[in-house]
User: Fold these one by one.
Assistant:
Number 1:
Amino acid sequence: EKHQSVEPFLQGKKVLISAGPTHEKIDPVRFFTNHSSGKMGFALAEAAAKFGAEVTLVTGPTSLNIGSNKIKRIDVISAEDMYEVMHQYFLTSDIVIKAAAVADYTPKLVYEEKMKKQPGNLQIEMKRTKDILLSLGEIKTHQYLVGFAAETNNSIEYGLNKLEKKHLDAIVINDISTEGAGFGGDTNIVTYVNKTQKREEIELASKKEIAEKILRFIDRDMKDEKH
Ligand code: CTP
Ligand code: CA
């Protein structure tokens, strides 16, 4: 990288980010999960640190390492764990970004011993997890709260619904059915929409570049609100 100085426009801001999937345990050897490499959330954490923020990254299980030793990383496993840690840090945060792919369901019963396979089909009863983002939206005071929406169809419509229902300040919508967007890869294509419904299309780019753009939009919108 070039020796260019970066404006530390997030200096003095506490940024809380969640990343990765969650694992919902069935028994000691099995779990349910969602597709998510964690790369978008990690890119956001690294970009926020680069722009001067004090960053806490709450991540579900991923194989990623964080490059910066300035980032406080907290590893969690399940949606319930992520809920607890996000609430623990929420009140003292200025910007909160939920890039995690949280499981919507978790097994009703967890078996303490490995379930032995049986002839025929298996049915597992699942219950809903808590909606972490919604729960934060309901208690937020000064925090700038940003969600993600990964959709396969009608992505803008579904994304705007989530923006409103979860009391968000902005949402980052990505259509995972588009080539170059979504899970696993190093690139993404997203639409950032703030609560005044102003839309910013971010074209195909690395997750790092997209993370930096998202943070610039957040900073712009936080400054606009103060006027
Ligand atoms: N989210 C969350 N807790 C959950 C489920 C989702 O905090 N239990 C957050 C995600 O981290 C993301 C946003 O809500 O920022 C949208 O997640 P998404 O899965 O797209 O939406 P859902 O509300 O779960 O609706 P659905 O999966 O039915 O589209
Ligand atoms: Ca979901």
Note: The first strand starts at residue 14 and ends at 19.
Number 2:
Amino acid sequence: QSYSLFSAASQPTNMSETSELADIDWDNLGFAFLPTDYMYIFKCTRGREFSKGELKRFGNIEISPSAGVLNYGQGLFEGLKAYRKQDGNILLFRPEENALRMRLGAERMCMPSPTVEQFVEAVKATVLANKRWVPPPGKGALYIRPLIMGSGAVLGLAPAPEFTFLVYVSPVGNYFKEGVAPIHLVVEHELHRATPGGTGSVKTIGNYAAVLKALSAAKAKGYSDVLYLDCVHKRYLEEVSACNIFVVKDNVISTPAIKGTILPGITRKSIIDIARSQGFQVEERHVAVDELLDADEVFCTGTAVVVSPVGSITFMGNRVSYRDGGAGVVSQHLYSVLTRLQMGLTEDNMNWTVEL
Ligand code: COI
């Protein structure tokens, strides 16, 4: 039982922590960090396996200035969400998929990772301990952030001697400031997110630091996010800073194939399955940037962004708009099917949700 992980000292101590819901403005959640009550921590030394984790009060952690993660970027993260159902129970969405992706990423980054079972148990325990932070139905989700870092000290370049697996959570609403309204993308044609043979297909922290320059410049110009091209041909779509991309033309939905430089999104994979089950033809292939010109609709997918319609894309100063700048019918439909399933409003025929 997950609660056996509490030490006596970390039992909730004041009345506000035992109430059903945290006392915050649930109607205005964005995607900003809000500290919660507990985090989960697991440590292991190089060459060993994670053995015993524990829930601790949420707070700062102490780390050597020489830690592998601070000096050489040895770090990896995941993201998943928990939704509160109408009956008060909580649903996780495909946590084993995150666990598996983290294991692949950890292998690429020379880090140990928890087993799928350890990962899922840690996530469940963290969510249950922070239950009062799971938004009421329809108000958002509890975003769960598992991470692994090289926490041990190194000076010469090498994997760290000690690793920390940590899970923290924060209640969230919409990722983009546009809310559920269409977002506006700009295609980046100089900077690239990933290279063949690099780490683009894993969720290592450096991939996200690498896009901050293009992202900040785009935001300063009023765009919501940046769409990256492949670095070899400078012609094929890769992904957006924080999400995958889909292009709709007639009844065919296309998305860049997973080929080492693109993050294999769990929402991406789920949307492909949902779209096929709804009668759409889905193609995973090279999608050329010129295809954006005569697409009917474009949308993004990700845990944080869910399914976000794209209102316009600007490439080399030329702007193309979709569905007259409104939300596309295909993305709206897929958004609805996915989120109803995640929130427990429809039967989960896919067996994707885990109830707590
Ligand atoms: C997610 O969608 O969970 C991500 O990890 C993207 C992150 C930049 C918010």
Note: The mean pLDDT is 93.
